[in-house]
Specification:
Elements: H1 20-42, H2 51-61, H3 65-94, H4 100-120
């Protein structure tokens, strides 16, 4: 979080961030948490994220470089959508306004973008992604 921004930074993987799969995993976790905040403001009960959501960073790590690069670009785009959206929702909420309709719209956009990202990950077997010991 920066002093100028009331929302958590969901910045791209460039700059002073960890590189590679760890940066993508951190950004995915931050975006997932941001989605939970939007869902709460929209009045949507989401429960615990599913296995495909939890395993996405591992699957992405094992993806071919072109697919990983495309997914990282899509993560940047999702963060660029969520940051101002959450800031606007928080401002509406802080003023006592009803942010539910806007939160519902942002939640729908988030779900669509997340589904597109999940479709970019290579398929995992029935036991989940391959993990090395």
């Amino acid at each position: 979080m920066t002093a100028a921004s009331p929302t958590p930074a969901l910045a791209p993987a460039t700059g002073g961030h960890p590189s590679g799969s760890s940066a993508s995993a951190l950004r995915w976790a931050a975006l997932t948490e941001a989605g939970q905040v939007v869902a709460m403001l929209a009045g949507v009960s989401t429960g615990r994220p599913g296995r495909e959501i939890r395993d996405f960073p591992v699957l992405l790590r094992d993806a071919k470089p072109w697919r990983r690069e495309a997914a990282e670009h899509a993560l940047d785009e999702l963060a660029a959508m969520m940051e101002p959206g959450i800031a606007a929702l928080m401002a509406i909420n802080a003023c006592g306004g009803d942010c539910r309709p806007a939160a519902e719209a942002l939640w729908a956009e988030f779900c669509a973008a997340r589904a597109a990202l999940l479709a970019m990950a290579p398929a995992a077997g029935s036991f989940g992604p391959l993990r090395a010991a």
